[in-house]
Amino acid sequence: MSSKTKTSGKVSDRLDHHSRRSFLRAAATGAITAPYFVPARAFGANAPSNRITLGCIGLGNQGTPLMKRFLEQADAQVLAVCDVNRGSNGYKDDHQLLGREPAKQIVENFYAERRPSNVYKGCDAYNDFRKVIERDDIDAVIVAAPDHWHAIMTLMAIENHKDVYCEKPLARTVSEQQAIVRAVRQHKRILQTGSHERSNPLVRRACELVRNGKIGEVKRVVTHVGRHNKVGPGPGWTPTPVPDGFDYPMWLGPAPEAPYHKDRCLYRFRFNYDYAGGQVANFGAHSNDMAQWGLGMDDSGPVEVECLFADFLPEGSLFNAATYTCFRCVYANGIELICQTAEPSVRCIFEGSEGLVRVDQLGANFFTIPESLATWEPGANDIRLGSGDNHYRNFLDCVKSRNEPIAPVEVGHRSGTICHIGNIACRMNARLNWDPASERFIGSKAEEANSYLESDLTRPWHL
Ligand SMILES: NC(=O)c1ccc[n+]([C@@H]2O[C@H](COP(=O)([O-])OP(=O)(O)OC[C@H]3O[C@@H](n4cnc5c(N)ncnc54)[C@H](O)[C@@H]3O)[C@@H](O)[C@H]2O)c1
């Protein structure tokens, strides 16, 4: 994280200081009579408002609808939004207006509609996420910035005693993910990974079928990731002017210096390895997460990963992530996982000696062989994989109860790792041995492969 960042001293000092300061601030603004603005921790679990105060970082294609999901939760209060884009079109849907000012407007309109006065002006909009993280009246932050920012933002938030909802994939590299795992455990924070299929009852049922042996012995899992859904400029492309209201240096942050082009940033960052892991990490953080869940591999991973096929755009193209990929992982028990670019409406197929379970797009459907499995329900002695159907609610509940969320940090890390090591095998066009205990490649080509695991953040940003 930035050398400019400070973290405070002892937790107890911080809490005392927070409580006093929040109370005084609330009293000074007259907000003490209104439920708005008082952080939940200022008064403990039985606070009059009992609201969890939130700061949302990254208000683009995913961050804006995500923020709305949290607005819907009566015990949450969005106090701050942050984006390096003041507000513009040019996201996934070219006509959608997103960024910090549109987000602030959404928040204030939402709360205004619920007040007799129809007026609410209590959401601050920031360009610099450190201003959100340093606020002592914010309990938790939602990180929905591009992947190259996940580790820095999450680590800074954790060190400032915030709980974190971090979008998937957990981070851009394996070592960044490991740093997040360590920090969450060391600082005893709640972290929910945005692999929200864990809160999908159909996905859960599919995985319960597999875990309870209903398709017999599992032989193979096939996961799908989508193709590039945007076209970027080819070799010889020329930079374009940075739009007014867009803080490009702060968008790049820990990524290497690079000339601006609109296709580098909003939404399209996912097609460039400097910022993300291509569609493998984008879709795979869901589909490979389902595979890990169904296989019961949340605390482990495969022992081998091999590129079967990978295709890239010509050297010099702005998008450098593989356009098509197919890689094969093998677990120690012999089960194969094939992750391939294919129809993304199919997410994950578990193939067993006595049947099959296929989870379709966003877990909206599942298909079984034999058909009768579709109505199977776990009995009292069967393995059950949790409950609930709202990933955001689950996060807030866990912030209050301090219980583990449905997609805790280790889950995000291990599922993300499948995507990252698959990408590494494809970038090297290699077959590699992976040790899920030490989380390092071993054997032939290990040195080069391990170098991809490391974080390569540009100074002054560091883990
Ligand atoms: N759970 C899901 O199904 C799902 C779906 C889509 C995206 N995502 C994840 O959400 C994240 C964002 O993806 P997206 O599609 O919304 O991208 P996006 O480009 O549309 O939005 C990212 C936003 O973050 C902002 N940003 C960049 N650097 C910032 C910084 N330093 N401080 C504050 N804001 C900054 C950008 O300006 C942009 O508005 C990614 O990690 C992606 O994998 C998850």
Automatic annotation (TrEMBL):
Domain named Gfo/Idh/MocA-like oxidoreductase N-terminal: residues: 55-194
Superkingdom to which the source organism belongs: Bacteria
Pfam families according to UniProt: GFO_IDH_MocA, GFO_IDH_MocA_C2
Gfo/Idh/MocA-like oxidoreductase bacterial type C-terminal domain location: 238-462
GO MF annotation list: inositol 2-dehydrogenase (NAD+) activity; nucleotide binding
EC number: 1.1.1.18
Keyword line: Oxidoreductase
Protein name listed in UniProt: Inositol 2-dehydrogenase
Naturally occurring in which organism (per UniProt): Bythopirellula goksoeyrii
Taxonomic lineage from the root: Bacteria, Pseudomonadati, Planctomycetota, Planctomycetia, Pirellulales
Gene (name only): iolG_5
